[in-house]
Amino acid sequence: MMQAPDLPLWAALITALLLLTGSLLTLTGALGLLRLRSFYQRVHAPTLGATLGAGCILIASMLCFSVLETRAVLHEVLIALFLTVTTPVTLMLLARAALYRDRVEGNPETPPDTGQERPANPAEKA
C-alpha cells in the first residue's frame, strides 16, 4: 500500500487547495444555515455548500488516489453523481412541503403564490 509521502508535490498542493476550498464552502453553507432567519432562506445555503464543497473534496480525493495508484479512481465519480442528483431534489421536496404546510396553516411569512408551482389547467380558462 502506498502512503501519502509518495504523492508528488504538485499533486499534494492541488489536493490541499481543493480540500481547503471544499471545507470553506461547506463551512459557509453551515454558517448560512445558522445565520439566516426563515426556513426558505436557510434551505439554500447548506444545499449549495454541501454540493460545491463535496465536489471539491471529491475532486481532491480523485486526484490524490489516481496519482498514488497510477490509475483512475472512479468511486468518487459515483459519489459526486449521487450527491449532485439527490441534494437539489431533496431541496425541492423540502421547500414544496414547507410551502404547502405554511399555506394551509395561513402563515403570514409564507412567500406569495405566483402560480408557477403548478401547471396551468386549460379547463379553468374556459
UniProtKB/TrEMBL annotation:
GO terms for molecular function: sodium:proton antiporter activity. InterPro entries: PhaG_MnhG_YufB. Residues 104-126 are annotated as: Disordered. The keyword rRNA processing does not apply. The keyword Membrane applies. It holds the Pfam family PhaG_MnhG_YufB. Keywords: Membrane, Transmembrane, Transmembrane helix. The chain crosses the membrane at residues 12-36, 48-68, 74-95. This is Multicomponent K+:H+ antiporter subunit G.
